[in-house]
Fold:
Amino acid sequence: MNRDPDIQRVFETADDSLQGVLGYHLYVIAMQKGVDVENLLEHLPDRSIPHTFSWVRYYDKQDLVNTFNPLIFELFQSRISLIAMTNVYEVALENLISCLNKKGHPQYLNEKRLRDSKRLYYKDCIKWAYDEAKKCDIGDTDAIKRLPTTFGLIDNARRLRNLIVHNHGLYNIHYEKDVIDYREITKNLHPHYVQLFKKNPQRLTPVMITTKDIILLSQAHIEAVHLLHNSLQKNYFGFPNAYDYREENKAIEWEKVLLGNAKVRVILQNEGIKLSIY
Structure:
């Protein structure tokens, strides 16, 4: 028996993309710490920012640089990385469900058919993924035991993402009310919500996540998608072996990870970037 190539393709796309998000995050945080601020000023627009096609907004570039001090930069970049991470994972789950449906393996959640012709709610996709991953009995046994905690982290990432994109990055009571209450999945709340917002809900309390959080949440998403892939390949297509980077001879090739696995030679020119595809 062989792995289903379409399911593997969805998995590897998600796996590479999640690694790309983490690699990029670590790179830009390191770059910010080593940047020469005076040199940075030279490369910012002098007095105005092209805001729309019709008008600009005037600004002080020194004020922008001062605001992006190392702490604020890391907090904001962590938000951007979290959004990218959750978007990649959400699309991966939707694509896996769609792929299985098309291959004659209709997917259900609590006896309700998950149809890719209708909008799939991310919460339902996470519950489905948990059920399927729990069937996994190959690969990392410790990772299998961690699944309730791992999916609690994934759900927390979903809710933090929602605060960032829907509530200007501020905590509200919906953050806790929206927790996935399903089977053994652990309820995971950010300490700032518990220690700051819940004690004074009237206070504007921003989502403040750091590189430490991004690494933890990245580990959860990558580990869970590996277990899910192993489970699907065995239970639906009969392939008995867990995916292993070493056996697949799959080293991290950052250019391929960041550019969608295409073989691209990037050439910088005065007018922009020229791509040579081979």
Q: What stands out?
A: Strands lie at 48-50, 56-58, 108-109, 112-113, 264-269, 272-277. The chain has a mean pLDDT of 91. Residues 5-277 form one domain. The chain has one domain: 5-277.
